[in-house]
Write a structure and sequence with these properties.
The chain is mainly alpha-helical. It has two domains: 1-71, no CATH class; 88-184, no CATH class. It has twelve helices and no strands. It has helices spanning 3-11, 18-30, 35-42, 48-63, 66-69, 72-78, 85-102, 106-111, 114-129, 134-147, 152-165, 171-183. Helix 2 crosses helix 4 and helix 9 packs antiparallel against helix 10. The radius of gyration is 16 Å and the shape is globular.
Amino acid sequence: MNKNDLLKELCSIKNAKRVYRDRASNFVIQNPEVFPFLLELIFKNKTKTSIKAAWVFELVCFENLNLMVSHINLFTNNLRKITDESALRPIAKVCFFITKAFYINNEIKLKLTDENKDQIIEANFDWLIEDHKVATQAFAMDTLYLFGKESDWIHRELKLILEKNAGSGSAGYQAHARKILKDL
């Protein structure tokens, strides 16, 4: 399988329905050699294909995060390039998957460098501070909360941001911020 096969699969996604995304993610899982192409497509910002690639990427990483391990540098080096809201949510969710796995998966722990962690932390703080949809911000809160367990400054900054923004955010933002603040 090659990049053209992946593009064909992504083009067959008619909308965000799970059935289409599942079919494409299964294609990538069964043909892991196309995974690097999927990652490249995500960072070709603001195209329908890049958004579909992000949707599929989330599901692939949920099923098999280890596919990401050898491509972690490419992922973290390009996080800040993503600006489309439809692509940001799945990318923020994958950051959460990586952070969660960091504490339980030795392969991720060994491959995730301090620079990778810093890039994830920086991107998630940006998503939390900037005007983004609640789902993206909720995943950013969760990611930062987990990384804050080993770096106190992250929890301090997270607390300041959440206390400042909790009153003006949406109901979903406020509820998630309360949950995180309670745990801090």
